[in-house]
Amino acid sequence: MTSLDAAFDPKRNSLNALRLVLAVLVIVSHAWIIGGYGYPPAIMGVDIGMFAVCGFFAISGYLIARSRLSATPAISATPAGRAAPPHLGRVSRPSQADLQTEPQPGSKDRPAVVSTRAQKARARLDQRKFPAGRAAPPHLGRVSRPSQADLETRPDLETRPDLEGRHALAAFLFRRFLRIYPAFLTVLIVTAVIFAPLSTLLAPTDTPAPSYPSAASYVFANLSLHITQWSIDGTLLTARIPTWNIPLWSLVFEALCYLALGVLASVVPRRFFTHVTVALFAALTLAALLTTDGRTAGFTDNLLALGAFFFAGVVLYLFRRRMPSSAPIALIAAGVVLLVLALGYFKPLAAFPLAYLLLYLGAVLPLHRIGARNDISYGLYIYGFPVQQLLLLATQGLWASDTGEPMPVALFATLSVLATIPFALASWFLIERPALSLKRFAPRPTRR
Question: What is the pTM of this model?
C-alpha cells in the first residue's frame, strides 16, 4: 500500500488550495455575525469558521514539521550503489584506501595526490582506529543520509530532527517570524490608519474622526500577537460586532505552536524525539477532552485544542513513511470526524482524523496549481473581517433604501470574499513575498 510520504509530493500538492478554501470558509462564517443574520452555518454544532481554523492548524503542523525536521543541504544523499551507514548525522571516518590515496578528477592513469584532508584523517585514525566490523564508506568528511533499505528497517532514522543544519532553532524561528509577523503588523497599521478613518465617513452616526490615541494604541497594544484591544474608539459605533479583526485571535496560538516545535526539536535527544512528540500530542488531546466540552473558547481551551490539531500534523509527518495513504482510510477518518462532531467533542478528539483527511486530499486532489506561486490564503484570513465591516457600512443603507429588506446573506458573503481578494493580493505581493525573500539572512548556525 502506498505510504503518505510516497503519495504526497512536497512540490506538487493541493494543500495551498485547501488552505484557500479554509480561508474563504472563515470569511463566509463571519458574514452571518457581521451582517446580523444569526449564527453562522455549523456542522453539528461547530461553525464552519472554527472548523476551518482547526484545519489550518492541522495542515500547518505537517508543513512546519517538514520545515523544522527536514535534512539540511549539508547532508548529502548516499551515492547510487553505495550502502549508507546505519547512523545519521555523524561524519564518517575514511577507509584505509582513502587514507592512502585520494585521486584527483581526470584520467584513471593520472597519479593520485594525497590531500591535506586525507593526511589529517590519517593522523586522527592513528589515535583512534575505526571500530572493527564496520566498513567505512569510501568518501571522506561527508554526512550520509540513510538508504531506502535503512529507512524501511529503521524508520526512526528518518524521524529524527536535524538539529545542527540550517533549520536550527534561531533560523527556524526567524523564518516563521517572516511568514506571520510582517503581514500581521501591516494589517494592524492599515486598520488604524486607513480602515478606521474610512469607517467614520461611511457611517454618519459615528464620530467625525476616530480617536487617534486609540488608533495608535490599537497597533501598539497588539504587537505581541495576543490581541488585547479589539476596537478603536469612535469607530463601528453602529456595528453589530464593534471589533475590527476577530480572526487575529488565532495567531498567538500558531506562534506558540511554532515555538513549541522548534524548542522541542532542539532540546529532546534525537532517539527520543518521536516518542516525546507523540506523548505531547496525546497529552494535549487528553487535556482538551478533560477541560472542555468541545465548544468553549477560553485561552487555555483553545491552546490545548489547537495545539492538538497542530501536533496531529507533526505526528503524521513523523510517521509519513509508515502511514498508508488510501481512500478507505480517508473515509474512515471522515466518519470519525462526523462522529465526534455529533458527540459534541470536535475540538478535543477530531485532530488526528481531520489532519489525515486533509493531507490525503492534499495528496490526491488535482489542484496543485492553485496557490503554487502566489498564496493569498493568509491575506484572505487577516483582511476578511475588516473588509466585511467596511462593506456592510457601504452597502447596508443603499440596499435597504432600494428594497426595504436587508441584503441576502449569500450575496453579502460572496461580495465579502470578492472585496477581500484585492487586499490579499496586495498583502502577498507587497508584504508577504518580499518578507519571505529575507529568509536568506536567517542565522546560519555552525555544526557541532
Answer: 0.78
